[in-house]
Specification:
Elements: H1 8-37, H2 43-50, H3 54-82, H4 84-101, H5 108-125, H6 128-138, H7 144-186, H8 190-195, H9 216-224, H10 227-256, H11 261-286, H12 291-311, H13 316-329, H14 334-345, H15 350-379, H16 383-399
Amino acid sequence: MENETMNPAKVSTSSSVWWLVLLAAAGTFALTMGTRQTMGFFLSPLNTATGLGVGSISLAFAFGQLWWGLTQPFAGAVADRIGAGRVLLAGVLLVALGTFITPLMTSTWGLILAIGVLSAGGAGMAGPSVLMAATTRLMPAERRGMATGIVNAGGSFGQFLMAPLAAALTLGLGWAGAMQALALIVLLALPAAWVLRGPGPAPVAGAAPAPLALPTGEAIRKALANPSYLMLSAGFFVCGFHVAFLATHLPGVVAACGLPAPVGAWALGIIGLFNIIGSLAMGWAVGRWRMKSLLSLVYATRAVAVLIFLLAPKTEAVMLTFAAVMGLTFLSTVPPTVGLVAKFFGTGNMAMLFGLVMLSHQIGGFLGAWLGGQVFEATGNYDWVWTIDIVLAVGAALIHLPIRESVVVRQLRPA
């Protein structure tokens, strides 16, 4: 009898399903993350229209950073129980609703509701914890590293694509019309909820049934009692600090260096572009080297890059080269982090447990964005933040080395 695993029709069908899963997850991440990242583009028009002041409007954005992180473990826990489809459906609708009503808000609390609660919360529900977990469940083990790299690159591509799209829409429709057009564009992600629905088994002939999720409390207790999981979360906290500081303050760094303002825009664009390359490269590397070693390498690279940047003359070429290096490491931490969580605990509670790691990332992000502004106001430069950045990066590189890449919880499967 012909071996089913070698049947060309079976292989072709499986490959088609895999690519459909990747398109759905990466496309959703591109639309939700891309739309969320364009919100800063509308800060000045919002200030002009409402007269609330940059500080009050920034509060809505800052709250959104935390809320995006806080929603992910809860969304993940729900997705682990009822499947990713309905969680993604609700998330996409909330992003669209929050973005659509933002131009109608005239108070600080209204903006906090629209930007900080609805849009950011929806982006958290349709964010990396749920998307990565759904992708991990629906892909065979040998393809998961590259798959998470592709999904991660989708978010980077969304950032790279949606900013110029928002600018073009603003020219044609005005800023309010542009925001509402972006809200409608987000709805293109709705079909992905059907593709990624359910906690079901991987679509491979003869695959084992999907693992059963542990009770939420038990899963959290096992995770928090595991030193490797805690060290991984600590490293991701550092990643959030780096990413948020750069995303928020890089244009200010460019200005402080006496470089033309367009260099800041180019630097942010280069970070987004090289982030795609870094994400794909890391996805490829995850299946070939120890994941904890890859994470240590990424953080060590950041420490060296920041140190060289501090010592180098602040020319346009140096700034753009620095942006490219940081872009390569920007979110390349995600695939090995996802891979280690899956290796420790399996995929039964994947969305919730990775969501907790993402929460650590966002707490670091809040501190990176907030501390950068505080230090600049106090000293007139960012030197102390760069120093903290280097110390944290070295610490993160070292803290990953003792991680044990072994199974913590054996996956339970239905009889």
